[in-house]
Every structure is written in C-alpha cells, then in structure tokens.
Amino acid sequence: MAQQAKLYVALASLCQIRNTLRDKPQFDDRTREQLHHVEDEIDRLVKTHLPSGSGFDSGTQMAETETPHNLLTFQTDFHHLNEHGYYTHWTHHMVRVTPTVAGIVVKAGGRNDKNDIKGYIEEQFYYALEDDVSYSVIPASWHQPQAEEKTA
After folding, report:
1. Taking the CA of residue 149 as centre, how many other CA atoms within 13 Å lie in the half-sphere pointing to its CB?
2. What is the DSSP string of 19-68?
3. Cβ burial, residue 61 (10 Å; 0-12/13-18/19+)
4. What's the predicted TM-score (pTM) here?
C-alpha cells in the first residue's frame, strides 16, 4: 500500500526502517525481502526526484555515513560552465538536510566557486525535498491475498 509524504519525510522514514531491519538479530528471508524493497524505494526516490542533469550531470546519491538518525546526507557533483557555455570543471558537494519545527534546513558543503553554486544547490534540493511523493515500505508481493486452502 502506497503512502504519501514530503520527499524528505519519505526518505527519513525509509532510512529508519532500513537501519532497523539491518540491526535485526533474526535476519530471515522475509526481513531480507523487505530490506531489498526499502533500499530499492530509497534509490527510486533519489533518482526520480533529486537533482539530475542541468549541471548535476552525475545525478545525486544518498550518502550512507555515520550521522545522527535525523540527518539526511546526499552527494552530488556539479559540472560548471563558463560564460561561453563550455564545461570547465566539476565541484563535489555533500548536501545535509536537517529537520526543524518549521520544516527542513538544507546545507551544501564543498567549494563555492565564484558563482555561489552552493546557494543554487541548496535551493534545488530544498524544492525537490518539499515535493509530495508516493512510496511503499512493504513489498507488493505481501499485498497478494493468499490462496485459501480448501477444507473437505
């Protein structure tokens, strides 16, 4: 069953579920199936909704770092253009998203360059993370009704 939420809420929920599943002492086939589903959902949401193209030519990846559970971290590279429209160089950026009572704070790290690229990156991530998305925490196969056994 699909759920609706802001992208940052969906990603935070899925990451929390992923971490809980990884820490389970009894790692059976059902847990493995749900973990694969949750990891696939995280990848799908990142690839579908976070910046890709238009300078973010390598897309965006979710960074799995040793950070507090309430922090989302992404890595992206930005391909810079000069005034003539030619690509000149890349800069690498870690983007950290922190929840607040008013929403989220997005901070981009890395080299700023002369064109205030970090401000642009923060803006692009902020608007993407505020989008409403649909996501699932349960594999679709679990929604299939089980065939009832015939009793004689």
Report:
1. 2
2. HHHHT-SS--HHHHHHHHHHHHHHHHHHHHHS--BTTBTT-EEE---S--
3. middle
4. 0.85
Angle between the N-to-C axes of helices 7-22 and 29-49, in degrees from 0 to 180, rounded to the nearest 10: 150
Dihedral over Cα of 146, 23, 108, 79: its sign: negative
Which residues neighbour 6 within 8 Å (Cβ) at sequence distance 6 or greater? 129, 130, 131, 132, 133
pLDDT in tens, 64-121: 765 566 689 999 999 988 889 898 888 999 999 998 888 999 999 998 776 789 999 9
CA gap 139, 38 in Å, rounded:
8
pLDDT tens, 3-40? 999 999 999 999 999 988 988 888 888 899 999 999 99
Enter the DSSP assignment of 71.
Answer: -
Residue 130, CA distances (Å) to 11, 116, 125 in order? 11, 22, 9
